[in-house]
Amino acid sequence: MTLRLEMDGNVAHLLIDRADKRNAFNMEMWQTMPALLDQAERNTEARVLVLRAADGRAFCAGADIKELLANKDDARWRSENQAAINTVQHKLTRLNMPTIAWVEGDCVGGGCGLALACDMRVATGAARFGITPAKLGLVYPLHDVKLLVDLIGPGQARRMLYTGVLHDADEAERIGLIEQIADSPDDAIAQLLSASPHSIRQSKRMIRFVLDGQSAESEETAQMFADAFTMPDFAEGTRAFVDKRKPEFGE
Question: What are the φ and ψ backbone dihedral angles of 68, each rounded to 5 degrees?
C-alpha cells in the first residue's frame, strides 16, 4: 500500500509509502489519493491533515519517470494521468480542514506540487525543494504554477521553474516556500488544534476566494462573517476570554 491514512487523535496522517522509489508518484497513487482525502474529510474527529513520508526520508521525488517514459506515446494514458494529478491538487488545496506538508527530505517536482497544495509547509533542516520540469523538457501544470506564484511571487517562481535548482531548507524559508524549519510538526499541529475549527475553515475559504481573484465583498462572504457570531465557537471563545482561560473548542 503506497498511500494510507492513519488517525492519531484529531490528526489525520496521509502517509506516502514507496520508499524504494523515493516516494515517486505513479498514476495509481494519483488515482488513489482522492478517496483518502474524502475519507479524512468524512472523519468527524479529524481537525488537521498532515501529508508526510512514511519512512521519514524523501517526502516525494516527483513523478515516476520510468512510468512516464513507458507511456509517453499513449495519448489516452497521458490525458488520464494529467486528470488524476489535477484532481488531487484541486481537492487537496480545497480540503475542508487545515493541511500541513511535513517534509523531512527531498521534495521535488510533483512532490513539491503536493507540498504547495497544503496550507502550511514545515520542514527539517535536511529538506530540499525543487521543481525540475526544465531539466526534463516538461511543463509544470497551470494549477501548480499558480500555487507557486501565489506563495513566493513571480520572480522566485521563475527562478525555480526555469532552472530546476534545488533549494535547501534555509533558502526555502527565506523565499517563503516553507513557513517553518523544525524538528517535528508538533508545534504547528498544536497551534491549529488550539484554534477554532470554524474560524480556520472559514478563513481557508476566504483566502481561497482572494487567491482566486475576488477582492470585493460578496453576499456569501458577508454571510460567513455574520454567521460566526451565532456559532458555538464564538460563544466558547468569548467565554474563555472573559474567564481568562484557554478555550476548549469542539469539532
Answer: -60, -45
